[in-house]
Amino acid sequence: MKLFRICKTLVITLLAVICFAPTAWGFCGFYVAKADTKLYNKTSQVVIARDRDRTILTMANDYQGDVKDFALVVPVPTVLQKEQVHVGDPKIIERLDAFSAPRLVEYFDEDPCNSVMYERLPAPASAPTSGGARASRDEDNSLGVTVEARFNVGEYDIVILSAKESNGLETWLNRNEYKIPRGAKQLLQPYIRQNMKFFVAKVNLKEFQNSGSQFLRPLQMAYESPKFMLPIRLGMINSTSEQDLIVYVLSPKGQAEVTNYRTVKIPSDAEIPVFVKNEFGDFYKSMFQTSYTREDKKVAFLEYAWNMGNCDPCSAEPLNPEELRKAGVFWLENYPSDARESAPFRRAVVPSNNVFITRLHVRYTRDKFPEDLVFQETSNEQSFQGRYVLRHPFTGDVKCQAGQQYKQSLTKRFEQEAQTLAKLTGWNIQDIRKKMPVAQSNSRPWWQNIWP
Fold first, then answer.
1. Which are the contacts of 36, defined by CB distance < 8 A and separation ≥ 6?
2. If you ran DSSP here, which 8-state letter would residue 213 be given?
3. From CA 100, how far away is CA 308, in angstroms rounded?
4. Between 213 and 120, the higher pLDDT residue
């Protein structure tokens, strides 16, 4: 994107002028690493493109077993028809992840004897405070289960069910060879009481082989409902460990937030030791776990919030209109004219060309997250990113009083960085100090001024 190239050029050519200006300190520097979902062994990813009551939900699959055993049961607010379901492009999830991932940036101190630059150096940042056999129609009725719709999309066989009670629904799913965990009926009942329907999918092995894909592709569904929520409780059945969920909310308005749990910004804009450049993945995992524990393990963390027309610093180019369409954004008006998707996925006539992304990271367990996630859109367009700063000290000779003061200040700065890192991660402060450089005075003996 042109804007991305301009931003990159400015960072490279005007670093000395821009990066030390206090007003530019918030977002500047060389992007050097990102903390994307590859850091975690198993992470669910969901994209929610929403405007008013219209939603396109994209669910990325992290299923790692035999595809013949795959079964997906998702409560949905309304009966979906075939035209409302689509098989998505997994690369779009990767693009959203790369664009919004927490990032590491680095700065390089200028010669402190350049008085203009030295006087404009910002103060160090302080530590953050914080399918099978079919059951007969009669059997279905006796169980209180109604097949509202049945169709195939791509490599998936899909049925839309309504049910009167959870025992009957669980029995129907088992009889029809959907391999769901034991104990599902307890978590299905609340959705039945809310009169929700059940989107049930399994893999059509023949179509999967014909697709040539090695992995299950994401499923997308379009619907209208005042409910802005994401069911997560079914994913907790028989789960004994914490689960990570990344939610990308795309909106024409501004930030999205969770309403039934606190939404907390991930610690950001911290100056940390330079050696973390080679350990950024370990750093971020430790920092996230420390923050998660500190918040009593029951918050949603905001990792990124930004208008998708730009970024600073960019860890990936912003998505183009075609990519945004594939991500489910339906309110843009400049999609390619040859985009030929089914009706719910065509360009909607909505007077907006804005796409604001909110990246939320939830680590959840049954005891800490007894409710599904409920969201709300806001008009808050304030930008935020999980961003961590490396400041490389100037290593050349200094021959001025300001330079001597700069060299003397490094000891305190390095210790502050060590303390910040220890507080963020819980790492041992002594181990951190061993990896850090020792500030060296660069003053010359007085006699060398006459005996070079």
1. 97, 98, 101
2. -
3. 9
4. 213
Helix 184-193 / helix 166-175 crossing angle, nearest 10 deg: 120
Residues 397-432 as b or e (16 or more Cβ within 10 Å = b)? ebeeebbbebbeebeebbeebbebbbbbbebeeeeb
pLDDT at 250 over 60: yes
Q: How far apart are CA 269 and CA 267, in angstroms?
A: 7
State pLDDT tens for residues 55-105. Answer: 999 998 777 778 888 888 899 999 999 999 999 999 999 999 999 999 999
Cα dist. 306→377, 381, 385, 388 in Å? 14, 7, 8, 17
Give the residues across from 156 on adjacent strands: 153, 203
Place of tokens 């992840």: 97
Q: How far apart are the first and last CA of the chain?
A: 53
How many alpha carbons fall within 13 Å on the CB side of residue 297? 13
| Widest Cα–Cα separation across the chain | 105
Q: What size, in residues, is the chain?
A: 452
Beta-bridged to residue 166, according to DSSP, are none
Q: State the DSSP H helix or E strand holding residue 148, giving kind and residue range, or none if neither.
A: strand 145-153
The H or E element containing residue 171 is helix 166-175
Which residues, at least 6 apart from 25, have a Cβ–Cβ distance to it below 8 Å? Answer: 19, 122
pLDDT per position as a tens digit, 273-296 = 999 999 999 999 999 999 999 999
Please state, in angstroms and rounded to a whole number, the distance separating the CA atoms of residues 362 and 292: 9
What is the CA angle 255-259-261, rounded to 5? Answer: 115
